[in-house]
Amino acid sequence: VLLGKAITLIESTKSEHKAIAQEVIQQCLPHSGQSVRVGVTGSPGVGKSTFIEALGTYLADRSHRIAVLAIDPSSRLSRGSILGDKTRMERLSNHERAFVRPSPAGDSLGGVARKTRESIILCEAAGYDVVLVETVGVGQSETAAHSMVDVFLLLLLPGAGDELQGIKRGIVEMADLLAVNKADGDRLDLARLARREYYNALHLFPPKDNDWTPQVLTCSALEGTGIAEVWLTIGQFCEHTRPNGHFEWKRRQQARFWMMETIRAGLEILFFENPALRQHLSAMEAAVQAGEISPFQAAEEMLGQFRALK
Amino acid sequence: VLLGKAITLIESTKSEHKAIAQEVIQQCLPHSGQSVRVGVTGSPGVGKSTFIEALGTYLADRSHRIAVLAIDPSSRLSRGSILGDKTRMERLSNHERAFVRPSPAGDSLGGVARKTRESIILCEAAGYDVVLVETVGVGQSETAAHSMVDVFLLLLLPGAGDELQGIKRGIVEMADLLAVNKADGDRLDLARLARREYYNALHLFPPKDNDWTPQVLTCSALEGTGIAEVWLTIGQFCEHTRPNGHFEWKRRQQARFWMMETIRAGLEILFFENPALRQHLSAMEAAVQAGEISPFQAAEEMLGQFRALK
Q1: Is B298 in Cβ contact with A118 (below 8 Å)?
Q2: Is ipTM beyond 0.85?
Q3: Does residue B306 belong to the interface with chain A, where contact is any CB pair within 8 Å?
Q4: Theoretical Cys-Cys bridge with B221: which of B50, B102, B118, B154, CB 3.0 to 4.6 Å?
């Protein structure tokens, strides 16, 4: 209950809440970092929610404490966003060792991602030892999720051939683990074939700097098969990257990345939310689009005005 | 000769040159915009230089005035970069109606791209009516090139099957025109097959907002075949997108984009090149990476210091 309230505080847009939220995060920081952070992505229809419920319940039943967070930039449109439907994971939501939170709302992917990133710290401080970050395969949200997790899992549909084409190559490159879901019934052979094809395709990619070879598994979230193997492989990933230092290195890089991103976002807010500059910017935009002033000259003048305001 | 000197001025990093360069661009602006700007990209080995020489010579021989510019972020490493080798296009370089310029050097893709974008304005004001912007298939350089051209041409190698997988999907999506080069000798059948496969694959993509269906052609830059058809198709693209307003709309969007990008880059320079902030930033980075302070808290403190400097 307390965790939920703390996250609500983080998600608040009220400025008086922001300072308190930062203080809470700062207090939680020394108690954070003890979980395995797992990113889960895949195209719509691949069965992400069912998979997360299956994996989460499997782990919660084995004494793990599971937090499920989400990054869904479309959540700005309505609180009932693609990943916002908590009832989809009814069994897991009601589990005493699980915490399921829909995607925060926000005006930008950066804002949504930041809130999720902060929530991870709170969940860890609250004692959750596995944090699952679900994301939709839309825009740059996988990149955002990837920048805050230890292991990145890509769910795939069974079926052969040119499937990799339907998924952005960059996302396959990000994945540490691929799982062909819906490997059940009639689709079992197809799933095995897809697994082999993905496995072969992965060999075309250059090796990762963490010296880990991405694995391809099959599973059926519906029947609960292959879920144990996914968790086993996540464990192997950690055992592989912790001794070689890459696990910690990546977390440090991620922390640095988030600092830099927050600075960049903050600079843009300072500029673009200044009323005087905004007004001038509208006029400049019109002049630039009409070809009266070069975009570079216009930018220099705007920056000059910003400096003068200082 | 004057154009070359003006571009050298733009490329200069000396601050006294920068103000003059902006003045020159501003003077050229009313005389710019009258060319067709064509982006040319493709994997290394696809024959970009040979193709550009073939297309450029074809056009220059037909009274067009051709400027060839390049965006190659690797040019920061050495002036003799991948796209810097002017001698590769010896025939075109010596043509009286052609102007060939290697990629500007720069510390960042943004800087390199900006200089190329500015050079387009100068080339147009100097009367060049076709501007070819060559780019390497590395990192985000295609995106940068795409943001400054009217038509985007992707060169491909003959060969069947899974070739689209080797090219980032986003780049195929950007292309208005695909040309399978090296369609000569033994490779003619392969090239035709590849053309058909790309054509079929393109049908899987959603329609573009300019209502233009990307075309796939074959050509041989070596033998000079198919080059006329490429130019014809570029003409058809312009005839299609000019009446529906998309041609001009895209240019206005691009101008706006460059203003915004320049503002963002300028804000980062103001922050990250401030000596006091830089020193503090190093200390903060260490604290963040050690987990002593949250990345968000660190960013807020840095931004607070920036505001105080104002």
Answers
A1: no
A2: no
A3: yes
A4: B50
